[in-house]
């Protein structure tokens, strides 16, 4: 392990321990950084590794970086060539005025067409880092120009031969020498005179004779002097005294926002002018396209400004008006940096406190001209932020130079010198083939074959063992009736080169081993009963359609007065009131668990009490207002004891429900009414699974079979506006080692010492999608721990299907067919007896576009490093019954719901009983 990594690890050790040391804000308010190298929770579990911190994998290179660098290089060359040749360009007047890289003599020469001899070799050092968006996509992001300047990344590791190779590529002839104060020692021998000068000094600081020779066409400057205008802006140097890395911004302003799935992400930046944009010399970008994870678009789809999600930037940053907040938006100020036209800092959103954000809102509200950039925090290793400083070299004639230096990665921490790490461009043979050879997925929106190969290769690496054929098949996405070996046998057909495709298929075949025999299930044999199915149905029906109506943490909503919700609300008999029913629902869950505790003589039901905190005020939400004087939120936890009370398996759901879109949005006939859904599927199907899990796990605990505790946790505030509030509060307490529960008698239960070794989140497990029947998601989080949990879930799925074959031979089930969907009825009759349903659980890893982990509490667990798997139906974002008046018993498929519930309970029991995980 290299010395910088040892320091990073030492600094991180215990850095987040202690209340308040690791705040986890709502992702709709502040997207967190991706943690790389090691995660905040229990980093010692896997030790400090450089993976994902300095390693740049083959897929990032092929799909993100190379096409991204090509586009960036071309855009830089095109715009700077216009500047050099005196043509209209996209560079702002404020960038060029007083810029030492573009002094008057150079500007005059360009205006008169006297720089035509410049070969236009552009070198721009970029600052990149990985960031995470609100759909859980982690991608390389352009922060702008390197805040270390243009020269350092190019000179890092440079030699005479590397410079000569670049000049040869560009077709620059003649004797070359270097000039400037930052030339590395390895190139000092090239200082002197010549007709080609490699220098990163701004033009006005070059010797007079050198400037005159260039203007006369006798000397070639590499890079073109215009390259440096982004790195010499005097006003941003002033701003950098108060806003770290402000020197990134000038280059960033040249680019439009880019959010497409396979390119470098470029966040929006520009200027706001609240007075007269026509008089501005800045780049005015006054509207922003808002995105959120509940949008009914594919996770990897690009969202364009069609007016539906577009807001004025100042409104998007600061407004808390009900209409601006909508159903799914929050003020974005914390993910933004703002400065005024005098280049004085107004807001550095990510580290700002509440008072600073409110002060900035007041300043912007008074009007003026403001620069801004949307700022999503860079990847972080421990307490240090990581940036990749990489030079892009391009010319008008040759395009981008693909052998440019790799630059370096800086690990930065306020008040401490940056540490320098070397980037590692991975080139593993099979991964290279997967990324670059599988190019013929005809008619598919995604690189499915590449994704399949990558999943198999990475699973083999994470698990350290060959994959069972059934396990491997559960990971690949291909024709439903194709076997694993059939898919492998056709892989060469989608390869650019048949032989390379066959070699990859051979490599993937070595990842596959034998199919092991399944262990005896712990509880499945008790779950294939009519009584179990009836219990599921009656419990969901009571939770969804009983006395609990107002089940969103924000209830009641004062601005609902006078609203009726339109035709959908009338048809569903929707009535809203001023109170919140979550307290009563929570008390009901306590009562259910108390009965089980009395029956089995062990266990305890407790509350995890915490406060809903936001950066802005929402006085029109009564639920929010309750938290201003004292904590008014709670996760409900049923603690089932195992032998080792220092370890726990979490099985979680969320017991709040979402506001309904068809009674809110005008295009659906609504009138802005905020009314919570009944929530039969989302998420009382999962709440029911936890209640029934207690009935199976308590006997195991009583018999001494649980190796560790099980915490059945009903999380609150998953739905908007709170936004995964309960999961964030729980994970924050776990990372900080400050977690405590409150018993029913008010005493505290200190659980700060407990290590959560795995978590299973259930969200929407009751609806069998019409689009792809009998499929459910085993959506795993990041890392080896999550991969191991997913394997156990897969084995539970196999065990269920094997038992189903036996059970369906019984005359009581044989030939009965599927469960009927039952129309809504006040008495909610149970569907007639049906055949048990075999299911196909698809293991969907966290980066896979089809994984819905990002849309649930599970993303929070994964981000902090708690091994996690999401059990979820085959989520269809376009269907009725999701966040609307149709989320009722009429949308519940009992055969499907019973199967997923049983598989989830068995998986939790298996993990709780396993000697080790």
What does this structure look like?
Helix 13 runs antiparallel to helix 14 and helix 22 runs parallel beside helix 26 (894-913). It is globular, with a radius of gyration of 30 Å. It folds into three domains: 3-267 and 376-424, no CATH class; 429-478 and 486-509, no CATH class; 539-913, Aminopeptidase (3-Layer(aba) Sandwich). With 917 residues, it is an alpha/beta fold. It starts with a helix and ends with a helix. An eight-stranded mixed β-sheet has the order 19-20-22-21-25-28-26-27, with helices on both faces. The model has no long low-confidence stretch (mean pLDDT 93). It has 26 helices and 28 strands.
SSE-based structural type: alpha/beta
Ranges with pLDDT <50 over ≥5 residues? none
Strand content: 15-25%
Strand order of the largest sheet: 19-20-22-21-25-28-26-27
* Domain count: 3
> What is the CATH fold-level name of the largest domain?
Aminopeptidase
Instruction: Tell me the number of strands.
Output: 28
What is the correct CATH architecture of the largest domain?
A: 3-Layer(aba) Sandwich
- Helix percent band: 25-40%
Rounded radius of gyration (Å): 30 Å
Our measurement of the CA-to-CA distance between the termini, rounded to an integer number of angstroms, reads 26 Å
Report the major sheet: 8 strands, mixed
- The overall pLDDT average reads 93
Structural shape: globular
CATH superfamily of the largest domain, by name, is Zn peptidases
Quickly name the level 1 CATH class of the largest domain.
Alpha Beta
What's the total helix number?
A: 26
């Amino acid at each position: 392990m290299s010395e910088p990594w040892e320091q990073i690890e030492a600094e991180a050790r215990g850095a987040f321990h202690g209340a308040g040391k690791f705040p986890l804000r709502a992702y709709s308010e502040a997207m967190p950084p991706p943690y790389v190298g090691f995660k905040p929770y229990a980093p010692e579990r896997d030790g400090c590794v450089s993976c994902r911190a300095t390693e740049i994998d083959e897929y990032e290179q092929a799909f993100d970086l190379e096409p991204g660098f090509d586009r960036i290089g071309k855009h830089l060359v095109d715009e700077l060539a216009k500047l050099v040749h005196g043509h209209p360009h996209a560079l702002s007047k404020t960038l060029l005025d007083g810029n030492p890289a573009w002094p008057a003599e150079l500007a005059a020469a360009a205006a008169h067409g006297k720089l035509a001899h410049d070969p236009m070799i552009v070198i721009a050092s970029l600052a990149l880092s990985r960031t995470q968006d609100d759909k859980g996509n982690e991608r390389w992001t352009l922060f702008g120009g390197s805040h270390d300047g243009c020269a350092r990344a190019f000179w890092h590791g440079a030699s005479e031969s590397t410079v000569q190779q670049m000049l040869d590529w560009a077709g620059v002839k003649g004797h070359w020498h270097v000039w400037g104060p930052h030339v590395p020692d390895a190139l000092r021998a090239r200082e002197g005179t010549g007709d080609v000068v490699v220098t990163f000094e701004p033009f006005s600081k070059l010797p007079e004779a050198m400037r005159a020779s260039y203007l006369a066409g006798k000397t070639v400057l590499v890079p073109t002097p215009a390259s440096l205008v982004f790195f010499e802006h005097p006003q941003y140097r002033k701003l950098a005294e108060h806003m770290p890395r402000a020197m990134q911004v000038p280059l960033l302003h040249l680019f439009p926002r880019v959010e497409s799935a396979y390119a470098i992400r470029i966040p929006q930046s520009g200027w706001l002018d609240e007075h007269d944009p026509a008089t501005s010399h800045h780049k005015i970008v006054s509207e922003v396209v808002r995105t959120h994870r509940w949008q009914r678009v594919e996770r990897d789809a690009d969202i364009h400004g069609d007016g539906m999600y577009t807001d004025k930037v100042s409104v998007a940053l600061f407004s808390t008006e009900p209409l601006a907040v909508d159903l799914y938006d929050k003020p974005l100020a914390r993910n933004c940096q703002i400065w005024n036209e005098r280049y004085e800092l107004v807001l550095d959103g990510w580290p700002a406190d509440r008072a600073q954000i409110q002060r900035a809102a007041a300043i912007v509200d008074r009007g003026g001209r403001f620069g801004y950039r949307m700022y999503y925090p860079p990847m972080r290793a421990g307490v240090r932020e990581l940036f990749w400083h990489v030079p892009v070299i391009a010319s008008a004639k040759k395009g981008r130079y693909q052998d440019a230096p790799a630059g370096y990665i800086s690990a930065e921490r306020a008040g401490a010198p940056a540490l320098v790490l070397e980037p590692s461009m991975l080139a593993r043979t099979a991964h290279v083939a997967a990324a670059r050879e599988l190019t013929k997925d005809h008619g598919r929106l995604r690189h499915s074959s590449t994704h399949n190969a990558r999943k198999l290769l990475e699973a083999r690496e994470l698990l350290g063992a060959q994959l069972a054929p059934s396990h491997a098949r559960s990971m690949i996405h291909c024709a439903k009736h194709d076997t694993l070996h059939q898919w492998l046998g056709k892989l060469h057909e989608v390869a650019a080169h048949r032989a390379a495709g066959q070699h990859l298929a051979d490599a993937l075949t070595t990842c596959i081993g034998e199919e092991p025999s399944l262990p005896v299930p712990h509880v499945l044999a008790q779950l294939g009963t009519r009584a179990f199915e009836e219990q599921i149905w009656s419990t969901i029906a009571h939770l969804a359609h009983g006395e609990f109506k107002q089940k969103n943490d924000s209830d009641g909503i004062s601005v609902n007065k006078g609203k009726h919700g339109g035709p959908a609300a009338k048809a569903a008999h929707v009535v809203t009131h001023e109170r919140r029913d979550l307290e009563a629902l929570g008390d009901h869950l306590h009562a259910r668990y108390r009965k089980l505790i009395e029956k089995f003589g062990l266990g305890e039901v407790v509350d995890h009490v915490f406060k809903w905190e936001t950066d802005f005020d929402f006085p029109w939400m009564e639920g929010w207002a309750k938290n201003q004087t004292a904590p008014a939120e709670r996760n409900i936890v049923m603690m089932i004891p195992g032998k080792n009370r220092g370890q726990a398996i979490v099985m979680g759901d969320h017991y709040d429900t979402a506001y309904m879109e068809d009674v809110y949005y005008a295009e659906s006939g609504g009138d802005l009414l905020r009314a919570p859904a009944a929530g039969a599927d989302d998420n009382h199907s999962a709440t029911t699974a936890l209640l029934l899990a207690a009935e199976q796990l308590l006997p195991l605990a009583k018999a001494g079979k649980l190796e560790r505790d099980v915490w059945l946790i009903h999380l609150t505030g998953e739905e908007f506006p709170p936004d995964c509030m309960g999961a964030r509060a729980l994970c924050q307490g776990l990372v900080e080692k400050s977690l405590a529960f409150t018993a029913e008698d008010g005493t505290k239960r200190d659980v700060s010492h407990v290590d959560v070794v795995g978590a299973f989140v259930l969200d929407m497990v009751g609806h069998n999608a019409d689009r792809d029947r009998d499929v459910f998601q085993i959506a795993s989080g990041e890392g080896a721990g999550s991969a191991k949990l997913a394997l156990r879930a897969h084995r539970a799925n196999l065990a269920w299907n094997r038992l189903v074959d036996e059970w369906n031979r019984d005359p009581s089930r044989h030939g009965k067919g599927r469960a009927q969907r039952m129309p809504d009825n006040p008495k909610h009759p149970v569907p007639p007896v049906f055949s048990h349903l075999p299911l196909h659980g698809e293991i969907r890893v966290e980066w896979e576009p089809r994984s819905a982990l990002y849309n649930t509490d599970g993303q929070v667990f994964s981000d902090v490093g708690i091994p996690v798997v999401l059990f979820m139906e085959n989520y269809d974002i376009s269907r009725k019954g999701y966040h609307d008046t149709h989320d009722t018993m009429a949308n519940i498929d009992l055969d499907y719901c019973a199967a997923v519930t049983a598989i989830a309970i068995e998986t939790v029991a298996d993990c709780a009983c396993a000697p080790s995980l």
